Amino acid sequence: MSRPDDGPQVPRYTYLGPEGTFTEAALRQVPGVENAECIPAGSVITALAAVRAGTADYAMVPIENSVEGGVSATLDDIAEGEPLQILREVLVPISFVLVGRREMELSEVRSVATHTHGWAQVRNWAAEHIPQAEFIPASSTAGGARGLLDPDTTYDAAVCAPLVAAQTGLPVLASAIEDTAGAVTRFVLVSRPGALPVPTGSDKTTVVVPLSEDRPGALMEILDQFSTRGINLSRIESRPTGAGLGSYFFSIDLEGHLGEERVSAALAGLYRLIPGIRFLGSYPRADHRRYEVREHTTDQAYRAGQAWVQEILNR
Ligand SMILES: O=C(O)C(=O)C[C@]1(C(=O)O)C=C[C@@H](O)C=C1
């Protein structure tokens, strides 16, 4: 409960920690975060749970990587349970270093800790340069690296962001070890549901659509709602619901904002088809890229169509 002497409330941001994760780098891009309280979480699930429980106002979590694809922990967690809302997206370029518990030759590295998504992005390099090394899954890239500071840690090395090497002083055994140069991870800032950010003309909308019926044409009916309204999808992924083989939901990002007629018409159409649809937010694109809205699907075209129908009904 707030008391008169509490002063202004500082927003509380949680993120996949500890210090030095790529998720923290994403959080640092949010304007005003330097004056906020930042609370590292041990996992994506605990970060999202803190927002649901109200112990944090916002959570920054990874959602997809340009090489490794969707981050299942995030996609699955925001698809069910207490609803959450995406407020913005943030892109972070990804490059990795190999740090060691001490200076050593690559041939001496017997075990390497990192996040599974990090390992997936360096596995070809690892197969070539440290084929003898065993992969040890860590809660995050920075978590794996910081573990090396503990004298009781049994693994030899970790794959992490160059920043963590600078923060910890751990020796860098190899740099730029990513298999694909120019990789990018996309993060989302989520809160409990509230007002939508205003449309900017360069927005994305994220929805979760359960595939309720396993029959021919079910996916086509979903896609039809978008294609007839000239809406481009920037991501569509199927994820298992966990209810058994063959039970899926689609996680979809589309170009546009719910405040635009063609998007609201498409989502209303989808709701009629699949009432279990979940709206996860309309928010500005991180790359500010503007998309083409075809002439017959602009707000103006929709309003002209509605006015024409109304005029007939008013006769
Ligand atoms: O471990 C980290 O540093 C994270 O922020 C997590 C994460 C991910 O989940 O994809 C983020 C970016 C990289 O692609 C590797 C790992």
TrEMBL record:
<comment type="pathway">
    <text>Amino-acid biosynthesis; L-phenylalanine biosynthesis; phenylpyruvate from prephenate: step 1/1.</text>
</comment>
<keyword id="KW-0057">Aromatic amino acid biosynthesis</keyword>
<keyword id="KW-0028">Amino-acid biosynthesis</keyword>
<dbReference type="GO" id="GO:0004664">
    <property type="term" value="F:prephenate dehydratase activity"/>
</dbReference>
<dbReference type="GO" id="GO:0005737">
    <property type="term" value="C:cytoplasm"/>
</dbReference>
<dbReference type="Pfam" id="PF00800">
    <property type="entry name" value="PDT"/>
</dbReference>
<dbReference type="InterPro" id="IPR008242">
    <property type="entry name" value="Chor_mutase/pphenate_deHydtase"/>
</dbReference>
<dbReference type="InterPro" id="IPR002912">
    <property type="entry name" value="ACT_dom"/>
</dbReference>
<feature type="site" description="Essential for prephenate dehydratase activity">
    <location>
        <position position="185"/>
    </location>
</feature>
<feature type="domain" description="Prephenate dehydratase">
    <location>
        <begin position="12"/>
        <end position="192"/>
    </location>
</feature>
<dbReference type="Pfam" id="PF01842">
    <property type="entry name" value="ACT"/>
</dbReference>
<keyword id="KW-0584">Phenylalanine biosynthesis</keyword>
<keyword id="KW-0456">Lyase</keyword>
<protein>
    <recommendedName>
        <fullName>Prephenate dehydratase</fullName>
        <ecNumber>4.2.1.51</ecNumber>
    </recommendedName>
</protein>
<dbReference type="InterPro" id="IPR045865">
    <property type="entry name" value="ACT-like_dom_sf"/>
</dbReference>
<dbReference type="GO" id="GO:0009094">
    <property type="term" value="P:L-phenylalanine biosynthetic process"/>
</dbReference>
<dbReference type="InterPro" id="IPR001086">
    <property type="entry name" value="Preph_deHydtase"/>
</dbReference>
<dbReference type="InterPro" id="IPR018528">
    <property type="entry name" value="Preph_deHydtase_CS"/>
</dbReference>
<feature type="domain" description="ACT">
    <location>
        <begin position="207"/>
        <end position="284"/>
    </location>
</feature>
